[in-house]
Amino acid sequence: MLQLVAAALPGRVLEKRLDDYIQRLREKVSLPLALQLWNGREFSFSTHPTVKLRFTSPGSLTHLMHPSLDGLGEAYVEGDIDVEGPISEVMRVATELSASGGELADRPAIKRGRHSRELDSESIGYHYDVSNDFYSRWLDERMVYSCAYFHSESDSLEAAQLQKIDHILNKIQLKPGERLLDIGCGWGALVLRAAQKYGARCVGITLSQNQYELARQRVAAAGLEDRIEIRIQDYRDVEGPFDKITSVGMFEHVGLSNLRAYFARIRELLADGGVAMNHGITSTDPDSGETPYGGGRFIDRYVFPNGELPHIALTLKELSAAGLEAMDVENLRLHYALTLEHWTQRFEAHADALREMVGEKRFRIWRIYLAGCAYGFHQNWMALHQIVACKPHATFKQTPLPMTRDYMYPR
């Protein structure tokens, strides 16, 4: 509606309003930013701008005069704004614009969505079934689409993703012959490693047809069909028991209202004394609110439909209420920021091929999403927590894990 109003205003009235707005904005902030209008007129906020926003029509100015990450992101995706400059700088400038324009850093409550098997399957398909080729251009060679684990910032993405898988499997003390369930198995990297290196018998489940097909091909190519089964299956429909369970980058799709039921199902699937690892993105807002400046609204609309991020406090509350005992909690927020920087760099390096592959709109969605998430993790808007939990023995007198954390860091 604001775009229609702006488009209907006489040009001189609109430009007068813009001049007034630019003057007020210059008094508030100093940004490495230049603006270019549809008629060629330009404004600069510094002597050496690193970012240029090009507005393609009068109606697109509403996104500047009422800025938010949601609105600016929408304008970019829909072609109302074009951008020039490093995409990480674009995100920083967009955030400062949103803050200066009155968009609050408050974390409004998430609108809890309804979740069903059908809706969850549709949401997973929307995000993960772009194409396997698309993901292969910017993920590591194993196509691990979750936070990596860096021993140092100089680690390659390939090394850090393998270190993450081993870190998880070491944490749960996976042993030869044990039965492992991987909830949200992706393209199969974790179950392949679990069978090859640790000798486990694995079931990997996904709701993505593309992931299912490629994971099965990889299992067959590795000659591990007798040790690994890949299924298209909802975790609520799996039958146990399992000695160990991993859930990596999946519980963000569960929904805040369903967390207790989710953890209860994991408990039901575990054998007595079994161990589970939940690795997922969490909100840093104690009330599990949205990411600030409208970023969460953009992601829900364009990227992750029906995703909901709980705070670690809520996560642990619901896990405990479901009858699991939390044994260890680790925050990998900065590891995810670095992972996303790697993904963003690779995405930018393959920009032409990716744009041709998925079209301009979807290319822009993913471009701004990856860069925005990297920025968000650096700003502590989100975190990434690994939780090791167990199904206690009936007597509570023993645990299935060593007394100290030393075992997690083999020398």
Q: Span between N and C termini?
A: 61 Å
Biggest sheet statistics: 7 strands, mixed
Structural class: alpha/beta
Number of strands: 11
* Strand neighbour order, sheet with most strands: 7-6-5-8-9-11-10
What proportion of the residues is helical, as a percent range?
40-55%
CATH fold type of the largest domain? Rossmann fold
Radius of gyration: 23 Å
CATH architecture of the largest domain: 3-Layer(aba) Sandwich
Number of folding domains?
Answer: 2
Strand fraction band?
Answer: 15-25%
Number of helical runs? 16
H and E order: HHEEEHHEHHHHEHEHEEHEHHEHHHE
Principal-axis shape? elongated
Chain-averaged pLDDT: 90
Overall CATH class of the largest domain: Alpha Beta
**Annotated CATH homologous superfamily of the largest domain:** Vaccinia Virus protein VP39
Instruction: Outline the low-pLDDT stretches.
Output: 1-9
Description:
The chain has 411 residues and is α/β, with parallel strands linked by helices. It folds into two domains: 2-100, Nonspecific Lipid-transfer Protein, Chain A (2-Layer Sandwich), CATH 3.30.1050.10; 117-408, 3-Layer(aba) Sandwich (Rossmann fold), CATH 3.40.50. It has helices at residues 2-8, 11-28, 62-65, 69-77, 87-100, 117-128, 132-136, 157-171, 189-198, 209-221, 259-269, 295-302, 312-321, 333-349, 351-358, 360-378; strands spanning 33-36, 42-44, 51-55, 81-84, 179-183, 201-206, 228-232, 242-248, 270-283, 325-331, 382-390. The termini are far apart. Mean pLDDT is 90; it is low at 1-9.
